[in-house]
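Hey, I'm writing a tutorial for new members on how sequence and structure tokens pair up, and I'd like a real worked example in the thread rather than a made-up one. If someone can provide the structure for the chain below, I'll link this post from the tutorial.
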Amino acid sequence: MLAGAAAVLVAGVAVALARMGPAAPTIDRSMLWIDTVARGPLVRQARGIGTLAPENIAWLAARTEGRVDKVLLRPGAAVTADSIILVLSNPKVVQAAADADSELQAAQSALVTYQAQLESAALAAESAAAAARAQYEESKLKAEMNERLLQRGLVPEIDVRLSKVTAEQAHTQHEIERKRFAFARQSIAPQLAAKQAEVGRMRAQARLRHEELDALQVRAGMPGVLQSLPVEIGAQVTPGANLARVADPTKLKAEIRIPETQAKDVVIGLPAAIDTRNGVIAGRVSRIDPASKSGTVLVDVELLEKLPPGARPDLSIDGTIELERLNDVLFVARPAAAQEGGAISLFKLDPKGRYADRVDVQRGSGSANKIEIESGLQPGERVILSDMSQWNRAERVRLE
């Protein structure tokens, strides 16, 4: 009888254990990130890291080929617009400037000579016109006198006719010379224009050659700080090669990289806060890079407040951009690897906090560290936000 009773008891226990299923896995509570669901205002933010960068940067490039003869300033030096950073040498540039000056002087002398020739020709034409006028006046007077003498019978009629013909010829010659003089005077300017254009071309050429000569002394071109000098004494540089970089350290901007998932909501003009580790500065989004790189988008932030002490170019910073303010929403801290929108599976703790059951949660808008809950949770409930992917098959876990 005892053996039979024992067999029945063992069979009952076996059936009960089979119906219970596998035991819930046990997890160390101290290893979990647990947060409480709350209701209230939610500020959506996008966060990223970056650096401070100058707004005004000038790369100084070589205008001509040359050799670095002197380096007068080193990175970190304060410069003005006329500060000479380094000196190049190129005998060909020096010779080209001298040749351009000689050609310009020759062209200017040729212009003066040609102008004198044109003026002389105009004066000769004026003299010829004056002589022709005098001849015409004389012939005219003589014809008039012969006309009066003919009336008195003192000269033959043939002389009167000849004097009139002579006067008409003198008048024609006078008109020709007058027109020739007017043409000579009017043609001076057009003829000089070609020579003056040549002189202008020579002058521009000489100016260019002198600018190239002056560019052998590389000047900063703007007030600021010399940041980079990638050449040394003796280096041979080619036209267009970068010789130095100058930046204005008094006006900086923040360049922060925002994750692609958050950057889609960033627009120009949004307020931002930049943490320099020595103070927080208010700012405003001024530019968004159209391209993405390594899963992030570069965002420029204009700084609206005075820089704290120690702020300088390339200083590491943290940036927070305010995307939106939601007044009354249900939210919880952002779960590990959570994205905005869609459903997510979380473990919700029971009232005693000993067990956590899997629940489906519908997410809404998100922030850098919080996410909106549309359904699946209630205020005051606690959920596990740690990565629970290794317990994907478990519907319940036990906490120790």
